[in-house]
Amino acid sequence: MMRQDHLITATQLSRADIETVLDQAAEIAADPQAWAESHFGSVLALCFFEPSTRTKMSFDTAMKRLGGTTTDMGTVESSSVKKGESLADTVRVIEGYADAIVLRHPSEGSAQMASEFVDVPVINAGDGAGQHPSQTLLDLYTIRENAGLDDLSIGIMGDLKYGRTVHSLADALTNFDIRQHFISPESLRLPRNVRYDLHEAGAQVREHTELDGVLPELDVLYVTRIQRERFPDESEYRKIAGEYQIDADLLSEAKENLTVMHPLPRVDEIAPDVDKTTHAKYFEQAHNGLPVRMALLDSLLGGDDK
Amino acid sequence: MSDRKLRVSKIRNGTVIDHVSGGQALNVLSILGIDGSEELGVSIVMNVPSAQLGKKDVVKVEDRELSQSEVDVLSLIAPEATINIIRDYDVTRKTRVEQPETVTGILSCPNPGCITNGNEPVETSFSIVADGVRCSYCGTIIRDSLADHIDAE
Ligand SMILES: [Zn+2]
């Protein structure tokens, strides 16, 4: 069981918290049927103020696989939010229908605020450019399965400024003996508050503008998408984003057992020819979302230690 | 405390905030939420010589005794400030401002995407970190010119 009532940021997770969830996720993955009735009657509210397919489906399926059900707020366009209702009011109403709330919202800090207005657990499924800690748990599960979680070099590449999966992952990795390399254009480097967290945690961190020099020493390469809207014009975007794309040819410079990850959806930052290599773990990573979110829900809903 | 040092007349009852960093007196009033509408007697002295600070401001508020928690938020902009509670022309209590762990409802978050800048029933909250303050909601760190972020309403 985690000590917290909510999951808002990755900074709140200790190594023991993480290992407890990952260990349980591994048990669930080995025998999912054993958990099929464990939260019979529990209701999870899905509150997605931004479009999401896989995160929402993943939580929806996880709750149902634990024997519970879900209730979906629907899209913002179809809800009372469009009439100007505050988030604080929305979650106070939804609290009455559900045993836990999964929230995705475009404002940074929205999940923290929501958690202050309700008594049921709130899971932050993405708050603007802030955090996405449940993604981090499945990322860590994938890293542990493929490379272990200590004495590693991890490269995190792409949009590090606005990438909430990156912020949560970087914070959580400070719990382990891991060298973190951040690879991005200057304009998309890690924000100050995340660099502050890493510094406070005494993490081993290096920042790079090119993948070339650091690729041979990496055990894991975590690629994220650089979005068009971060740049003033199309040609600037194409020029810069093109420097942070990988293909099978480039990976010939990498360690043989390099694990390549991506939170998905990808566009062209990982060429399709990488999919056939032994490096590609991003679909496995996405599939890990199910047992990890089942373990997380069980922990927040007060599961008995099986 | 000499009259020359204060340059304004003594007050009978109230609070004298001394050793405020030069030029910050109006921000002190803003943080304390004093804008004149309370009809309290308020006098300020700005940029007088100070051995300790070079230049200092002094703020006097008549007929109101400020509590320690009220004045502690002044540590953000006036860390050297001293607080004198005056009763019947005498200093009955003299304290320093102490750095609080969090500051609520005083500063606004400079991140436009922060939930505290949305239309929500929530006060801003900042924790004090090594050399600045940090939004308890979005994590944004403010290091310089805190006074620019005072939410004067
Ligand atoms: Zn903020």
From TrEMBL, chain B:
Matching SUPFAM superfamilies: Aspartate carbamoyltransferase, Regulatory-chain, C-terminal domain, Aspartate carbamoyltransferase, Regulatory-chain, N-terminal domain
Protein name: Aspartate carbamoyltransferase regulatory chain
Source lineage: Archaea, Methanobacteriati, Methanobacteriota, Stenosarchaea group, Halobacteria
Disulfide bond keyword on record: no
Record text on subunit structure and interactions: Contains catalytic and regulatory chains.
Signal peptide (from-to): none
Residue intervals of the Aspartate carbamoyltransferase regulatory subunit C-terminal domain: 103-143
Free-text comment on the cofactor: Binds 1 zinc ion per subunit.
